[in-house]
């Protein structure tokens, strides 16, 4: 029944344009900048809307009028089938240009597809993919692919996500893991003949000495081979995971996750640089510039004020009791805010002159009050890979594209 | 010398299923009984039992259940599917030296309905710590690392892997015992199957099965007087390479190779006196398609990097039972049973000729192999 409804609604194609209730306006921009904490002066100075606000202008407000909209129609079908809770999981926005104060935006949307029922950590649910196009007087100004999970809240609180697999540390290998804790990538060396070796062990296979020592790797190397892991899910991880076997410049090989790169961009022979992620060796493509990390203390005020400034009146973002009733631990950050925080992180680093062409994000662990949300990023050319983590895991991972 | 001293006198198996609904011990008992019956022997004839370290059925439990008496030989081999032909080698060693007279090798597992090897779970041991936490936590991902390098070094493509799968399913389609009986696939099916761990697709990975297989080994001389024509064991070898790891031998100069199978190959040809050109059909352990190509090269059927041409040209019949891709995943033991049927001339997809039959065990780990021939 759900599949048939999805097919019917998807076949309708793009909906007619629905006008925003208000033109792009400075008060809304100021509230948004204040809630996000974005001090970039260009918006007020030049009368421009922050790009991540694209979706804000056509939000329906607190008292939404029910009219034809593919996502709303599909949501109603899923609501009726008992899949009453919702979380956004993916958002890919493209900005053709920034909106100007005074412009009136219209949105057209269509349902792409619906997949399910799937068992998720939150409960059984359906993934709904939609596309939205924002226009000003018929001119497309922004586009978005959006993915939500409509789920049936479990009778019991959702199971905590599985713990990631951790290394087993032994007497002969402890130096390696201690090195990572100390910020060093260590390679075993023989205390007698100096031979380097990875993985390590108690004896030198070359001279037989039982005097293991170590050197600290320069952290540079090349990809010898790699894997894009997709199935089955890895405990506590999100697929795909790119894992690379790297020839370190010192002459030993080592396995680590390759981050900050799209799977289809990886090449054997590619230069990488070592980094340390969650106490494990990992790699990033050489030539990436690290953005300074940014820590945001997420208070209830941050969650509620940003929800309202993005004109998202879903109760799970401001009403704790309602959030718990819908299967959540507490109120949580909405995806429009996460998109905005990602925008702020990148423009804070790139400077006020930076112009964004797109933000593509995937949400993971929810961000609750009293979490510390830590953003890290790597820039390569005009692309910035951004990750935001809370104490419980990855809240967001994505890419920001800047205009050249 | 062990060459031609012993023979496989009986084979037995349960049905190959996805949910057997029975205990692994019961599966073991059913397969062992069937193998003894096939050989025309009684449980009381059994004085040796060998299996994999991964098998959860104690030798003494199997002995109790089948009603065997006293045992003089109990042995197990490690390293997962790499043990398959090595447990037979254990039996050969015991029989050839007079330690035992009738040894049964068995492997019983509810791998699909019970503990699935393809799931990412925390492994024991220090070696795994260099791979599992970083995201190499499944056999497919571990093989994919080698496969990617192999493709890079020799220009093989995912289509070359797909042809291995298509060939296996073509044979399985005409094997009523195979899970994929009457379900052949095309190269397009392979191309359309989802990625598991790039460059491996679902159809590059063997299936998961419930079931059991047992083999009865006795002296070649005695086997000639038993119910079935003996499958004489002309060679039985085990091998481990330099700097060997379990599925993750990434620290050798040449990652795109299976030197442990090279160690096995040299012994197999040396013991038996055969050459690759003599072999009628090979039953190669096919947990993942790339390792079928690499085994062909290590065994000397073709040069390094050339196996894809051998497969594309269909020059050597491989896995006429459908292999583990098509028949069932009984940790390689069903491949040995197929090799016996080929020697006897009773296989459903019988390969003509009277040349010897080669069979291998799991690769990427310390592995093993056999060459069987008629009396």
How does this structure look, described?
Chain B: Residues 254-358 form the Thiolase C-terminal domain. Chain B: This is Lipid-transfer protein. Chain B: It holds the Pfam family Thiolase_C_1. The complex is a heterodimer of chains A (404) and B (375). Chain A has 404 residues and is an alpha+beta fold. Chain A has eight helices and 18 strands. Among the domains of chain A are: 2-157 and 299-332, Thiol Ester Dehydrase, Chain A; 165-216, no CATH class. Chain A has helices at residues 2-11, 26-36, 42-46, 70-80, 174-181, 300-309, 320-325, 335-350; strands at 18-19, 85-95, 106-119, 124-136, 139-151, 186-190, 196-197, 212-216, 220-229, 241-248, 253-258, 271-277, 280-285, 289-297, 356-363, 372-380, 383-390, 393-402. In chain A, strand 10 (241-248) and strand 11 form a beta hairpin. In chain A, helix 1 (2-11) runs antiparallel to helix 4 and helix 2 packs antiparallel against helix 6 (300-309). The longest helix of chain A has 16 residues, at 335-350. Chain B is of the alpha/beta class. In chain B, the strands form two sheets. Chain B has a nine-stranded mixed beta sheet. In chain B, strands 5-6 form a two-stranded antiparallel sheet. Chain B is globular, with a radius of gyration of 19 Å. The chains are: A alpha+beta (404), B alpha/beta (375). Chain A binds chain B through residues 164-170, 172-173, 198-199, 205, 224-235, 237, 241-243, 245, 252-257, 263, 268, 280-282, and chain B through 118-122, 124-138, 141, 144-146, 148-149, 152, 194-198, 202, 243, 248, 250-251, 255.
